[in-house]
Amino acid sequence: MSLLRVVIADDDELTRGGIRLVLGALPGVEVVAEAGNGREARSAVDRFKPDVVLMDIRMPVVDGLAALRAITGPTRVIMLTTFGEEQYIDEALANGAAGFVLKSSAAEELGPALKAAAAGEMFLSPPVTRHAVTRLRGLGTAPSSDAGARLAAADLSEREAEVLRLLARGLSNTAISEKLVISESTVKTHVSRILLKLECENRVQAALLATQAGLLH
């Protein structure tokens, strides 16, 4: 199995150190370089050709969004974000971000995020999913018959539909497990089956489909 080569880009040295420790405990992951701003991140990508860049949004000299736009080729960029930075989500996704990881949840989310990136998929932290769904509701999107038909064709079990409804409200796997009084691993299994049945790549797509289908009404 080949190593997943990663660059960490964050202007805070302590944050980089914490992320490096988390990645050091993950099998098959190698940190090839660190960067303190977007310009250094771009140089590191050109030099080391990493598989993934973990990119802070707000950095001096060149910020993470500008660096994201400048990175081309197969390298995937996962944005590191904090609460209160939701305004950057749409722009980052529009410019090809492969996902969002909440810094406060990095220890739990970096492994799944890198696994998704390696598989060519997208990983979005639950608060990002919640933002996307809230934004869609704010736009006043009416239920879609196409989305309803797609949801019906997926033939979700009663429990899967219940998990999807909570997922669409922006709840994390931990919160769903507490709400339904089931293990977190069982929730993860349900989410995986839901994504497979709905042919969705990530939680946001599933949440938006559920919202458009009127599942939350």
Automatic annotation (TrEMBL):
Annotated membrane-spanning segments are none
Q: Give the InterPro entries listed for this entry.
A: CheY-like_superfamily (IPR011006), NreC/VraR/RcsB-like_REC (IPR058245), Sig_transdc_resp-reg_C-effctor (IPR016032), Sig_transdc_resp-reg_receiver (IPR001789), Tscrpt_reg_LuxR_C (IPR000792), WalR-like (IPR039420)
Q: Which Gene3D superfamilies is this protein grouped with? A: 3.40.50.2300
Q: Which organism is it from?
A: Catenuloplanes atrovinosus
Q: Does the keyword Transcription regulation apply?
A: yes
Q: Which PANTHER family match?
A: TRANSCRIPTIONAL REGULATORY PROTEIN NARL-RELATED (PTHR43214:SF24), TWO-COMPONENT RESPONSE REGULATOR (PTHR43214)
Q: Name one GO biological process term.
A: phosphorelay signal transduction system
Does this UniProt record's set of keywords contain Metal-binding? no
The name this protein goes by in its record? DNA-binding NarL/FixJ family response regulator
* Gene Ontology molecular function: any one: DNA binding
Keywords, A to Z?
A: DNA-binding, Phosphoprotein, Transcription, Transcription regulation
Q: Which residues carry this modification: 4-aspartylphosphate?
A: D56
Instruction: Report the residue ranges that make up the HTH luxR-type domain in this protein.
Output: 149-214
Query: Coiled-coil regions in this chain?
Result: none
Residue span(s) of domain Response regulatory: 5-118
